[in-house]
Design goal:
The protein is mainly beta. It has two domains: 343 residues, Tachylectin-2, Chain A, CATH 2.115.10; 152 residues, Exo-inulinase, domain 1 (Jelly Rolls, Sandwich). Helix content is 5%, strand content 48%. The strands form seven sheets. Strands 23, 24, 26, 31, 32, 33 and 35 form a seven-stranded antiparallel sheet that branches. It has a six-stranded antiparallel sheet with strand order 25-34-27-28-29-30, with no helix packed on it. Strands 4-3-2-1-19 form a five-stranded mixed sheet, with no helix packed on it. A hairpin with a 5-residue loop joins β21 and β22. The protein is globular. Bound molecules: beta-D-fructofuranose.
């Protein structure tokens, strides 16, 4: 169907002009993050196309530059040498063709590969009546040309709803290229988002190709019987520590937003036989992680920090959309697999480069009703690492009070009696002022260690040795910066508390 290079260039130019006009004003807002990646202007969701190309890290993301709300999608782009400091690039892809929806949904999520010295992108073109898979390539990693053979994959299998056939993730295995896409056989979630519970069954399609352009259907990697979701968005399929992992973002599974399945891949049949199911992260605001392996062989993931308005806790509203922007990305996380099939994530070591003003609090006993106040950088942009000896702790709960002031407080509670971690943003200042709970494995062990990253609005929490993570946004006043640890119904033995301020990466 061809490629209108001139129109594409014009569209990119229009984005660049708009971004240049608005970025200084948006950068002023105190809710802008200091060290989590954000687009300079507009709405962003899923990160994708993560790859190391010619020695540099490339990050692309779902971008609607022209407002703080989701709209016709583009691919924003940034480059980094350390996964922490990102340099914004011109928009990589803008909708310019009938097949990639220049009057509709636009250019949806996809992935990147390197082939014959080119950086090749796969993406979903969201046309009026269907979603199709397309490709674009670049030799300099900055300027992209859409394939004149687009769409390279125009039809899902016949039983699939053509409106829900998206998010191609491509990889090479032996002499073949494989692609997974998320699909449903029910009514489109995009057309009827509020109906997502009534929809059909989600599946992950597996296609393969010898030449990157002609794709044949192999099988459904998995098919939901209800337990895996109604639509399986942003599937990633990769080997990790001797097993295969299918990681995706399901619609229709309530609070289970990002699932991973661990199991074995039968390449002959194209079936995935999974044994373990888990959640990559249990927070409100974690979605659409993408996996890539870097030149050092590390398995890394980054995800969108944000929520969709149709998610029950959002009540159809976003806290920053009216300001002309929304969304950020998590820190890069390195993942590995435990022998029991559970996934461990921890911040990539590069994150430590941001540390400054280290403080160390000596071991002590925290008595009930006698909280331990502490400081960490400016109390807003900081890292906190604390560990407790649970064999000498009698408390029912250990409570971190974060971003506190007379009016506001965010509570992170470790309920040792119930074996739960509870994130409470009812007094944080959010539109969505709610609690999130998840199981806490350490409650039955001798030690609890927790690592917390606070940025202007996001909080990333790692505990259970990285087996439990939670990512949430809070929209507190910048002046709310008090920190303390307290206990309920008993005392806690603190083994150590280390804190750091974290430097900004904006305009660094
Ligand atoms: C997931 C998702 C993808 C889609 C993109 C559209 O967050 O819905 O399935 O490609 O966002 O922006």
């Amino acid at each position: 169907m061809g490629f209108n290079a001139k129109l594409h260039q014009e569209k990119i130019h229009r984005v660049e002009e708009y971004v240049a006009q608005h970025k200084a004003e948006i950068a002023q807002h105190p809710w802008r993050e200091n060290y989590h990646f954000q687009t300079p202007v507009g709405w962003m969701n899923d990160p994708h196309g993560l790859i190391q190309f010619q020695g540099k890290f490339h990050l692309f993301y779902q971008h609607h530059p022209f407002s703080g709300k989701w709209g016709t999608m583009h691919w924003g782009h940034a480059i980094s040498t350390d996964l922490i400091h990102w340099e914004h690039q011109p928009e990589a892809l803008a909708p310019s063709e009938d097949y990639d929806g220049w009057e509709g949904g636009g250019i949806f999520t996809g992935s990147a590969i390197e082939h014959q010295d080119e950086l090749i992108l796969y993406y979903t073109g969201c046309a009026k009546d269907r979603q199709v898979q397309c490709m674009a390539s670049s030799s300099d990693g900055v300027n992209f040309t859409k394939s004149d053979q687009n769409p390279v994959l125009a039809e899902p299998p016949p039983e699939i709803n053509p409106h829900d056939f998206r998010d191609p993730k491509v990889w090479k295995q032996g002499n073949l290229w494989y692609m997974v896409t998320g699909v449903t056989d029910g009514v489109s979630d995009l057309i009827e988002p509020s109906n997502s519970q009534k929809n059909g069954l989600g599946k992950v399609c597996l296609h393969r190709s010898k030449n990157l352009k002609n794709w044949e259907f192999v099988n459904y990697l998995v098919e939901s019987g209800g337990e895996l979701g109604t639509m399986l968005e942003c599937p990633n399929f990769f080997s990790l520590d001797g097993k295969w992992i299918l990681m995706y973002s399901p619609m229709g599974l309530q609070e289970r937003q990002v699932v991973y399945l661990t199991g074995d891949f039968d390449e002959q049949t194209g079936k995935f036989h999974w044994q373990t199911m888990g959640s990559v992260d249990l927070g409100f605001d974690y979605y659409a992680p993408q996996h890539f392996r870097d030149d050092r062989g590390r398995d890394l993931i980054m995800a969108w920090v944000g929520s969709w308005p149709f998610m029950p806790w959002c009540r159809g509203k976003y806290d920053t959309s009216e300001l002309g922007w929304y969304g950020s990305l998590t820190l890069p996380r390195q993942i590995r697999l435990c022998p029991d099939g559970k996934l461990v994530s921890e911040p990539a070591s590069e994150v430590e480069k941001l540390r400054e003003h280290e403080q160390y609090y000596a071991p002590c006993v925290i008595e009930e009703a006698k909280p331990l106040p502490f400081t960490a950088g400016d109390g807003v942009h900081c890292e906190i690492i604390a560990s407790f000896d649970l064999s000498e702790t009698t408390a029912q709960r250990i409570v971190f009070s974060l971003r506190g002031s007379a009016e506001q407080e965010t509570k992170l509670e470790f309920d040792l009696a119930k074996g739960e971690m509870i994130f409470d943003r009812t007094r944080s200042g959010n539109i969505s002022a709610l609690q999130r709970k998840c199981p806490l494995e350490s409650a039955s062990q001798s030690e609890l260690t927790v690592r917390i990253f606070l940025d202007s609005i996001s909080i990333e929490i790692f505990t259970d040795d990285g087996r439990t993570t939670m990512t949430n946004n809070i929209f507190s006043n910048p002046e709310s910066n008090e920190l303390s640890i307290s206990t309920i119904a008993g005392r806690a033995r603190l083994l150590g508390l280390r804190t750091y301020g974290l430097k900004t990466t904006v305009n660094a």
